[in-house]
Amino acid sequence: MRYGITGNPNKEQIWEPVADLVSWLMRRDLPFCLHQEVAAGLRERDLVGEAVCSENATGDLGAASDVVLSYGGDGTLLRTAHALGNDEEEEGGDTPIAGVNIGRLGFLADLDTGGVEEAVGQFEDGAYHVEERLVLRAETRLHGNAAASGEAPDLAARWALNEFVVDRSGATGLLEIEVRANGSALNTYWADGLIFATPTGSTAYSLSAGGPLLAPGTEAIILTPIAPHTLTVRPIVLPADAHIEVHVRRKGGQPYVFAADGRNNPIDTDGVVFSIERAAHTVNLAKLDGQSYFKTLRSKLMWGA
User: Which active-site residues does the annotation give?
Assistant: First the structure.
């Protein structure tokens, strides 16, 4: 196997573990490639020789490797997933990703730096499996009078592994968010925002806002309101094949944000409708045999501690 290595260049603590892995792979004559930013960082810090960095640097880890090791936290893994994919083609890339945690909780990045060499050994032995994680996609169109007078805003990212979020982005006043599911009115939310999460994203922002935990293989989409004004409003779980339409009614020209896995799209246009549904592709995560989602939950959430 050929190992792609990437990480968050803004985390200083990634560099020595990455350099140690490169040296270990070279001693065992195992092929690898480095994301060009990581190669540059190793070279600048004199942790890996210039020739090694130059020969193994690439801007396309997905095409150049069999599995990608992503050093950082869950946010880094999300960025890696988007970098491997192609937003224009609505594809997430088939190369599986294994996250090495140098963050805090690390639900997605569940390998420790001290266990990477053992993990590579399991990859070499074929003692791993690939989890295909559900992904959401979004499209925009204009509604009503706005459709005749303008163009729908482009989105920086049109798919999400964790969640889409409609958020008031610090502006005063609640958002009025109309939601339809499969053509029927679901609810009008008066809230700071609304989260549309995958099972993978159920341990992220949605959890912080009171949403339920869903195991990764669950075929569902979670709608979790953020600080709703009405106390009877609760999160709801929809089937994965639901077609969701979202219309934010702007009062007094109030701007808001539509975010995909933390990538913000400021919206300052009236009449925008977001269509959200299951994407045709998945994001693939490499998991070692013996790794358990429930063990990770118990550890990270300190259940039974």
Answer: 74
- What is this structure's pTM? 0.93
- Specify the DSSP element, H or E, that contains 222: strand 220-226
Question: Could you tell me the strand order of the sheet in which 163-167 lies?
Answer: 236-239, 220-226, 193-197, 163-167, 256-260, 263-267
What letter does residue 173 receive in the DSSP assignment? S
**36: nearest Cα among 24, 54, 49, 50:** 54
The CATH code of domain 3-134+282-300 reads 3.40.50.10330
Q: Is 136-278 a domain of CATH 3.40.50.1980?
A: no
What are residue 149's phi and psi, to 5 degrees? -120, 0
* Tens of pLDDT, residues 92-127: 478 999 999 997 778 899 899 999 999 999 999 999
DSSP H helices, the chain, are 15-27, 36-44, 50-56, 61-64, 74-84, 116-125, 205-208, 293-300
Q: Count the Cβ atoms, other than its own, within 10 Å of residue 85.
A: 23
The string of pLDDT tens digits covering residues 43-90 is 999 999 999 999 999 999 999 999 999 999 999 999 999 999 754 444
The first and second tokens of residue 90, run together, are: 């609505």
Please give the single-letter amino acid code of residue 185.
A
Domain boundaries, the chain: 3-134+282-300, 136-278
CA–CA dist 148, 134 (Å, integer): 35
CA 89 to chain centroid: 17
